[in-house]
Design goal:
By secondary structure, this protein is an all-alpha fold. 78% of the residues lie in helices and 0% in strands. It is elongated, with a radius of gyration of 29 Å. The protein starts with 5 loop residues before the first helix and ends in an 8-residue tail after the last helix. The relative contact order is 0.04.
């Protein structure tokens, strides 16, 4: 307990620390003063905000509850209503719908007592508008957010005005008015970076903006706003500005831009944050992001465990788990899993990544037709949204399919377009993956120098990132060429190589189909592709080719 007379000094120091944006110190001083003499309304609100900003969410709720009671005791119904709103909204933001809804109901009752057109009336338009948006009723959401903006303008409240602008922009994007909607998101972020809104609203707006950017695959915009806000956050080391889903989105951005250790740390923080006070749906997303990073780094055991954890939390582990199986050489298992995931997909935002994985796995399984259909769908999605990441995904998929079909020059054109797109969004891993495909195309065109340069650049990127599985695949490609592997020069897919090995061992198409769990028709198509790519005319010539290039061990 503070010494007699020390309370006033502690209050003064706490208030001064808050003005200096030293929130941890402000919280410590104010709560210490509170031990000797109960804080008044203004100081309770300062302490509650400071607690929130340094990540002490439950302490913040307790202090806000006291501030609410103090406002009522003093007869300030409007202020009590605003405090009840922020309590409810904050709890909803944390996933506590029941407790949050109770406080919002109390805020609505008090707002009615405070009189028509009070500021809190505008704030109370926000939660139901978010419900409308989540339900897909973007028209109703836009009407509510416009009304909230009108109330904000009447009262000159920058926080509500910015939230309303953000919500309206998101609703317009849902209505297909993407340029207009994105412009409103940018305007909301200008208010954030200019310091025109409170720190709580800064976090809410930033997290909502990068979530929307993720949904429309405008990751370049998300990255720019993240960089713009980074300086302010770095200047406040005790600040905890990002929570739950926001941490997951940030982990995605960090993964894309090659900051894998930082992305893993952010995903772990998301897991920790979403466990307080109860399991949040974000937990599954955070576990999935951890699994993806472990897979990319070749940490198969950790990836497997994290995928299973994500699944237990309700987040389907695809496409990552299927890609892990592909890395493990279990092509048939991967193909079955990714097909089921694509067929059962209803999430428009998740579908492009599923299709991207479907193309890669289908090509590995030798199912060029299925890969082509998925690539066509990706191209359609990219045309609708015209987002750089979607354009890059679609171009890579189309290029890989054209390569598998023997259309090497056309495939190379698409792959070079994909490479430029990935480089433009500063995605080193994705760009390196495309470089490997470019190298394969160049080898087949006889341009070995360019191919070697592309493989060297890809290998350096994979090494710097710690992408062990990708490096192993690249080395296998090099080893195949070093051992006279004209199979690479011939452009055979992994599945076609499997068929060639089986064919060279004397098996019939029916026997090959049984062993590889595919149809005889598919085997016949693979055999025809092999003959075309290797310029062969018979099974005996294909058998001779396989033995000549050490694709089948001689019988003993």
């Amino acid at each position: 307990m503070p010494e007699p007379g020390a309370g006033a000094d502690l209050l003064a120091m706490g208030r001064e620390a808050f003005l200096r944006e030293q929130w941890a110190d402000a919280y410590a001083r104010l709560t210490e003063a509170d031990q000797g003499q109960s804080l008044g309304l203004d100081d309770l609100e300062l302490a509650a905000l400071a607690a929130y900003l340094v990540g002490l969410d439950e302490a913040s709720v307790d202090l806000q509850t006291r501030a609410y009671a103090e406002a009522l005791r003093g007869g300030d119904v409007d202020r009590a209503a605003r405090r009840a709103f922020w309590l409810g909204f904050g709890l909803l933001y944390r996933g506590e719908r029941v407790r949050g809804g109770g406080w919002l109901a109390r805020a609505a009752r008090l707002a009615h007592e405070a009189g028509p057109e009070s500021l809190v009336h505008g704030y109370l338009l926000v939660p139901p508008a978010l419900v409308d948006h989540e339900a897909g009723d973007f028209e109703a959401a836009s009407v509510a957010f416009r009304e909230a903006a009108r109330v904000a303008a009447k009262h000159g409240d920058a926080d509500l005005e910015t939230i309303a602008r953000l919500g309206l922009g998101d609703a317009l994007i849902g209505l297909g008015q993407i340029p207009h909607g994105v412009g409103l998101l940018d305007e909301a972020m200008v208010a954030v970076t200019a310091g025109e809104v409170s720190p709580i609203v800064m976090g809410i707006v930033y997290c909502a903006v990068i979530e929307t950017c993720q949904r429309i695959f405008d990751l370049g915009r998300a990255h720019e706003w993240t960089a713009a806000l980074a300086g302010w956050c770095d200047a406040h080391p005790d600040l905890v500005p990002y929570r739950g889903a926001c941490l997951v989105y940030r982990a995605d951005l960090m993964t894309l831009h090659g900051a894998w250790p930082e992305a893993l740390a952010e995903a772990r923080r998301a897991s920790d944050a979403s466990q307080r006070p109860s399991v949040d749906p974000v937990s599954g997303e955070a576990a999935y992001r951890r699994a993806e990073l472990h897979r990319l780094r070749g940490e198969a055991t950790e990836a497997e465990e994290a995928y299973r954890h994500a699944n237990r939390l309700g987040r389907t582990p695809q496409p990552g788990l299927a890609l892990l199986r592909l890395d493990q050489g279990r092509v048939a298992v991967a193909a079955s899993a990714i097909r089921r995931a694509v067929d059962g997909s209803t999430d428009v935002a998740a579908r492009p990544r599923l299709l991207d994985a479907f193309v890669e796995i289908s090509l590995a399984a030798g199912d060029v037709a299925a890969a082509g259909a998925a690539a066509d769908e990706l191209a359609t999605l990219a045309g609708e949204l015209d987002a750089p990441v979607l354009v890059a995904l679609a171009a890579r998929a189309e290029g890989a399919v054209l390569l598998a079909e023997g259309e090497v020059k056309s495939g190379l054109d698409e792959l070079q377009r994909a490479l430029a797109a990935w480089q433009a969004v500063e995605a080193p891993y994705e760009a390196a993956r495309v470089r490997v495909l470019v190298a394969q195309a160049c080898y087949r065109l006889g341009d070995d120098d360019t191919a070697d340069l592309e493989l060297d650049a890809a290998d350096r990127a994979f090494r710097d990132l710690g992408a062990a599985p990708a490096r192993r695949r690249l080395e296998a490609l090099r080893d195949g060429r070093a051992s006279g592997g004209r199979a690479n020069a011939g452009g055979l897919t992994p599945r076609e190589l499997e068929v060639l090995r089986q064919l060279a061992s004397g098996k019939t198409n029916r026997a090959i189909a049984t062993d590889l769990v595919i149809s005889e028709k598919t085997v016949a198509r693979h055999v025809a592709n092999i003959f075309t790519k290797l310029d062969l005319s018979s099974r005996s010539a294909a058998t001779a080719y396989a033995y000549e290039h050490d694709l089948v061990a001689p019988a003993t």
